[in-house]
Amino acid sequence: MQLGADTFAYKPGLYETFRTLNHKSVFLEPHLDRLIQSADRIGLTIPFTQTEIFEMVKIVISDFPDPDQRTRILAMPNNLIIYTSALELDNSIYSGIAAITVHANRETPDVKTTNYKVCLKAWRKANDMGCFESILIDGNGVVLEGSRSNVFWVKDGILMTRQKNVLPGITRQTLISRSPFPVSFGLLNQSNFTDVDELFITNSGSGVIPVIKVDSMEIGTGEPGPITKQLLLLYNQWIHDDC
């Protein structure tokens, strides 16, 4: 089942998106944990337990013919929708993508709500310009997150990301907790993109995605850096281990 990206962009609710591998969900438990916690926070009633949702997801995934899927859970007042589609990854993104910056921010960055008009508009702008992603920038020119991703950068061998006012992405949390490289929290200004050694974004569908250009600025050597490439390999191993 496939639905348009903006089908639920104006309805109150929450959503989770994750991938499958060989008909098995990847990191489903933390996605469901975040869904339940977010529902409690905004006072949204989900008429099913976490265990019941888990079992429903298994049925939807197993009934779909493609083994690798992009699956979404939509939670709206007293209603739950689970749908899935073929993952259809474009492997060329792992050679490095181009992004643009957009001055925008989500109202509730730490909750994955279906009110993602800001992100949808930013992503469409990137798409119209032939880029893969929009990186959201606040009024002071400081990086927040991607329209569909979290942002990491590497400087002097240290993996860095913003600590607050961003979505606690599941892939982001996985990298922070499992990275063999030191991790530090910090801020990155739009004017300092050319000072970082490496830049990449993460999301649950595509994993670790190298960024080699932002606006007109080349990142590092203009190719995926060694730490990014190693984390990409490690993440792919982690999702196989989880399944």
TrEMBL record:
<dbReference type="InterPro" id="IPR043132">
    <property type="entry name" value="BCAT-like_C"/>
</dbReference>
<dbReference type="GO" id="GO:0008652">
    <property type="term" value="P:amino acid biosynthetic process"/>
</dbReference>
<dbReference type="InterPro" id="IPR001544">
    <property type="entry name" value="Aminotrans_IV"/>
</dbReference>
<dbReference type="GO" id="GO:0005829">
    <property type="term" value="C:cytosol"/>
</dbReference>
<dbReference type="InterPro" id="IPR036038">
    <property type="entry name" value="Aminotransferase-like"/>
</dbReference>
<dbReference type="Pfam" id="PF01063">
    <property type="entry name" value="Aminotran_4"/>
</dbReference>
<comment type="similarity">
    <text>Belongs to the class-IV pyridoxal-phosphate-dependent aminotransferase family.</text>
</comment>
<dbReference type="GO" id="GO:0046394">
    <property type="term" value="P:carboxylic acid biosynthetic process"/>
</dbReference>
<dbReference type="InterPro" id="IPR043131">
    <property type="entry name" value="BCAT-like_N"/>
</dbReference>
<dbReference type="InterPro" id="IPR050571">
    <property type="entry name" value="Class-IV_PLP-Dep_Aminotrnsfr"/>
</dbReference>
<keyword id="KW-0663">Pyridoxal phosphate</keyword>
<protein>
    <recommendedName>
        <fullName>Aminotransferase class IV</fullName>
    </recommendedName>
</protein>
<dbReference type="GO" id="GO:0003824">
    <property type="term" value="F:catalytic activity"/>
</dbReference>
